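ESCALATION

Customer reports they have been waiting on this structure for their group meeting. Please prioritize. Original submission:
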Amino acid sequence: GMTLHSWGAVTPGSNDIDSQIRCIRTCKPALQRWKNVKVMIIDEGELCAR
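Update from on-call: job pushed to the front of the queue and completed.
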């Protein structure tokens, strides 16, 4: 598995959508992943168990 932050080049805790988009656009591998993804399953169950 991989965190959404590392997979998608997003900054945890940042609510500024414009800075998130800039970050994604500057990371070419992440940008390609966003362009190619059709389905994303986010499993946060591990966090709920604590």
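Sent to customer with the following note: The mean pLDDT is 87.
Escalation resolved.
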